[in-house]
Amino acid sequence: MRVLLVGAGGVGTAITRIAARRAFFDTMVVADYDPARAEAAVTALGDDGRFVADTVDAGDEAAVAALLARHRCDVLLNATDPRFVMPLFRAARTAGATYLDMAMSLSRPHPHRPYEECGVKLGDEQFTQAADWEKSGTLALVGMGVEPGLSDVFARYAADELFDDIEEIGIRDGADLTVDGYDFAPSFSIWTTIEECLNPPVVYEAGRGWFTTAPFSEPEVFDFPEGIGEVECVNVEHEEVLLVPRWIDARRVTFKYGLGREFVETLKTLHLLGLDRTDPVTVRSAGGPVAVSPRDVVAACLPDPATLGERMRGKTCAGTWVRGSKGGAPREVYLYHVVDNQWSMAEYGCQAVVWQTAVNPVVALELLAAGTWSGSGVLGPEAFPARPFLDLLTAYGSPWGMREQ
Amino acid sequence: MRVLLVGAGGVGTAITRIAARRAFFDTMVVADYDPARAEAAVTALGDDGRFVADTVDAGDEAAVAALLARHRCDVLLNATDPRFVMPLFRAARTAGATYLDMAMSLSRPHPHRPYEECGVKLGDEQFTQAADWEKSGTLALVGMGVEPGLSDVFARYAADELFDDIEEIGIRDGADLTVDGYDFAPSFSIWTTIEECLNPPVVYEAGRGWFTTAPFSEPEVFDFPEGIGEVECVNVEHEEVLLVPRWIDARRVTFKYGLGREFVETLKTLHLLGLDRTDPVTVRSAGGPVAVSPRDVVAACLPDPATLGERMRGKTCAGTWVRGSKGGAPREVYLYHVVDNQWSMAEYGCQAVVWQTAVNPVVALELLAAGTWSGSGVLGPEAFPARPFLDLLTAYGSPWGMREQ
């Protein structure tokens, strides 16, 4: 297997470090817009001869297709931000390569009823091209990070092995991470967090289909395992709600993010003041008036989460809560994966949230290389057998857990 | 009297409209950095031949002194933002003109104990030059808007006519203004509001002198008159606390601003995220990286308060609450001035907060022109007899009130 990894940010760099310990691939080309970032990721791996740094603009579809051809890559792994999903997805199709990403094409709210009906949904742009991928016998494995990704694998595992009938599948994400020396320091990209949290959250119900609610709806306190404890969670737009119902029977699918009360209030304030906007405003500067996106300014005022690993303490938990019945009796389980930042920093030099996102596409690549997972079309993680994935994840030194409720 | 008015923003424009109805002056030169703003203010007054538009950079001390000389002005009225206090104050001194402002030279927090001790206090830079003004027999009347300004006049009135002994003087400012069509739209410059509210609030106590507290300290609910009702008020850095104790005996002086709970939380969030900062951050733009001040971006995301008068409803109240004794009996009064936005828009085309600030320096100029008020040195409004001011304010059609508590 010859992989083109696009994006050498936090997650991309963690992918190289995890992959470097595995033998399943021949070459991994690490390409970034910033040549220094790609070089730094490759250099950090020492004398592993399988990694090559290169430069590419992820928004330039033709350049990406040419890079795939030049390095004879059969897989494109997208580790950039969601704005680049479509050019990378199309470039892989053009080059005949397998495609993987960890977030799907962006949504657009309903023009008149944004908090009641879906407009363009997450992944819609990708799924409209499914027939084309199927026809050519090529695979696009979409949403293959931790959430979406491992959370979808958990859903498939629950449907296959734990339940006869599923009432509700609820992804629940929470953490107790703190950053020394900062009163406020998100552990993940604030740009993406705003995008996720202020877009209308999507919910699925059998019979009704997908619909949206107001941001931060249905607050609930969820008790996370391994000492993290209770965190307030709210509905957030997330890929799992769009993926799970395509392959798994469940009467309701939700995603709730354990943002905590303070963070929710902070995001509401940013929205109230229009500081979440991405369209530019005109501001004075020493060199005269300039046009900047308020959301970029918010990001610039906060520390870069990729640099915070050393100062971070605590654990992050991703998981899937399932309620239904087995053998006629009601059952409720939470399937979860916890990463302790101290462990991921010591073991890989990567902060917990980034490492947890990165490990899953590497496991998936290894299953594809071995032929354990195979398919064609645009498929989510729940389209594949779950057990081999969970076993291989454990073999990577990062076991998952299950709590009967 | 020949007046140079520097600044043709909201307050400057309101000053011209109020002054145009009075006969006490011969000429008012309206100068602004933006020639169009000065022209617009003068043009709006029709055929009143006493007003002249001109252009000046308020930060250019020599240019301002030259402008005073060129127009033979004997008074400089500063209606710019507080960053320009010192160059304008010095320019007036150079030219031998009387100086008036509505906000004083800026403070700088104590380098080590910002929330316990004062560093450089509001007005310190001006008061250090008091001897020079006195020696030359020239007057700088500082803090002569509504707050500081009318609030200080109220304090003097209370000391002269209502009390034998004063325990506490507390300026209390509150409003019930709303802006149609906006969830969040401050009625005054957000830049200045952040400056006022996030600087360490200053408090005066006899024996202890001036000291600071943490922002938003000592929240209290104050009941404002004329239907405004209860508003949560918190300590804020304001000039009155520095002015009143210099001329009036009181055991405690405070300033509390009726920001309301939501606004306080909003300012706290801006501070938590570093969006109140004025030092530039580097942000991407279409034309490459640029350096902008986050606080300027916050201001750019919000509507310009000067343009909101038509959409605003409600009243604003400035006042001075005094507690002490008279004739051996305890007494407590609130002296106040309320402006209804509907009235100020109909009568002057100016929104309430801006009009209320602007009327007071015009009244003061008229008292100086008549010789009712006179003096030399750097003096606050409480250095002058209060009764003539309050009577003339009433004659301007804008009466004040008093509530015995």
From TrEMBL, chains A, B:
Descriptive protein name: Saccharopine dehydrogenase family protein
Boundaries of every Saccharopine dehydrogenase-like C-terminal domain copy: 145-397
Domain of life of the native organism: Bacteria
UniProt xrefs under PANTHER family: CARBOXYNORSPERMIDINE SYNTHASE (PTHR43796:SF2)
Pfam families (UniProt xref): Sacchrp_dh_C (PF16653), Sacchrp_dh_NADP (PF03435)
Domain Saccharopine dehydrogenase NADP binding, residue spans: 3-141
